[in-house]
Amino acid sequence: MTGNIADGSNGNEAVDMYTRYKEDIKMMKNLGFKAYRFSISWPRILPGGKICLGVNQEGIDFYNDLIDTLIAYEIKPFATLFHWDLPFPLEQEYQGFLSDKIVDDFRDFAELCFWKFGDRVKYWTTLNEPWTYTVFGYVDRCFPPGKRQHTSSGSDSASATDPVLDTTRALLSTLPWASAQEILGEVSERAFRETKRNFIVHKGASSNFITQIYDTIGGSDQSTSKSAQSGSSGQSKLDPAKEAYIVAKNLLLAHAAAVESYKKKFQKHQKGKIGITLVTHWFEPFDSKYENKRAAERALDFMLGWFLEPVLCGEYPESMMQYASKNIAKFSKKESELLKSNKIDFLGLNYYTANYAKHDPNPRHDEGYYKDQKIEFLGIQ
């Protein structure tokens, strides 16, 4: 995100696996890898975010060859369906995971992947670290979509279709094989902003693999996306304190929808497994006081339990229902049943560090996720 990296660097050019995957996989084999976990990029497969807007066959071909190459080297493919790369058109149309419309679109994307790759991929992860996507994107706002624009008037000057990040940086960040300077030599930043258009990747057509621009939503994008978040005045109705909880709920429902589809339509014949990968820190009480012991338990609930308990039981942790009762996005009975009736076959867990937790009755935070916890987090005693 613009301005968030001290030296101004970005991910436009990274390890370039898109063009070097064969040599990468050969090195994996030499290192003794038995399995490899990778993500399938939703916008690479469905540039418009929806099947009705077209499937990018070159994206399908890339993953087919990646999977076949892994298997040829006796490396089991573990595929993740969502590792935070939301198709930009869905952010424009209905604000991505802030809308429950995302659930059906994610289900469609997942089913397409099961159809195309499930004969060889036997381990599926629906979401990677949904906590990170939710908190970094909608609370800390250091990950996309970052700072959200809330309008105080009914004018069209800041509509819901306006990019929530710097437009050019956000779009170019998905293109690791071409530099921003090279691309902007062909299409100006002003053109991005005025047309609200995005790039389709087309391998082999030019040195940058970029040949065309497409209308993200077409002529109906502004009216559609405004209706997702606005009343008749055009003013935003979203409460910033509730955004993270809404996103988390829709992530969980999208997960459940994908699991349901896999188990009902594919698992019997493909004989694979499906699960989710979560993340947590460990939390130690700051001292032996009862209130701080409870704070440590509550911190784990607000990080790991927020996603794990709904996946297993269809409900949020009791502490979240108590402390975040004003803001949390509750499940309906039908939604709760969808979650708990579609059990995961495995759980992935990423763990990085630990913190001390101390009860704080008056946290110095804005209304929402951090303030709801009533916890002060410390690195040292």
UniProtKB/TrEMBL annotation:
Q: Name one GO molecular function term.
A: beta-glucosidase activity
Keyword Disulfide bond set for record: no
Q: What is its EC number?
A: 3.2.1.21
A Pfam match: Glyco_hydro_1
Please list every transmembrane segment annotated in the UniProt record, as residue ranges: none
Q: Which InterPro entries match?
A: GH, Glyco_hydro_1
Q: Please, one GO biological process term?
A: carbohydrate metabolic process
User: Is Disulfide bond among the key words of this record?
Assistant: no
Arranged from A to Z, the UniProt key words for this protein are: Glycosidase, Hydrolase
Under the heading PANTHER family, the entry gives:
GLYCOSYL HYDROLASE, MYROSINASE 3-RELATED
Q: Per the similarity annotation, which family is this? A: Belongs to the glycosyl hydrolase 1 family.
Instruction: Specify the protein name.
Output: Beta-glucosidase
